[in-house]
Amino acid sequence: MPAQPYPILEIDATIDGTFRTGRFEMRKASVDEAIRTGPLVDNGFSQVLSAISEIVDDVELDGITVNNGAGQRIWDIDFEINTGPNDGQWGYTSDDTVLNAASATGGDRYQKTQVLLNYLEKGQPDSMTPARLIYGGYAPGGIFEADHADVYIEDPGGEVRRDQSSSVPGSLTCVRTLDLSQPVSATERTG
Questions:
Q1: How many CB atoms lie within 10 A of CB 35?
Q2: Domain boundaries in the chain?
Q3: 73 SS3 class
Q4: Among 14-23, 38-47, 50-59, 150-159, the range of highest mean pLDDT
């Protein structure tokens, strides 16, 4: 069994003038993990290819890859947001009586969806301010040295369906990233 069986996403953001860390416990989630590989550039980037062609002959028809065997680690997460506190913490506090733009642990599906999107919008997770994914071996007591993975978020969304009164299906992709706000060691730079 993994150290952390469901994904927990932590996002830092300034909401209504106060710095907060939102914690989103996705207890009803399915996670697909993968390594995203692909070319560094394609033939459409003529300026990049032009610069490279000064160093390497016959680059016009060849793709260019760097470290293609070990690309970006990704987690595709499909989750369900439910009304009430049974989902775990949803925002900066686990107190289910707090309901505002930064926390909705005891809120309904609409409020919880809005709080998550608010953190994603205001926190803008990227390499300078990564979100933290706590899942599987990337957790306290997990098999990896780090107790989380620094990530940025792609394609977040939720579908509020009128015919379902208590849940919102949502999805997002977490992509592992280097935290550039911290000093980077030579080991982290190379692998």
A1: 11
A2: 4-38+69-190
A3: strand
A4: 14-23
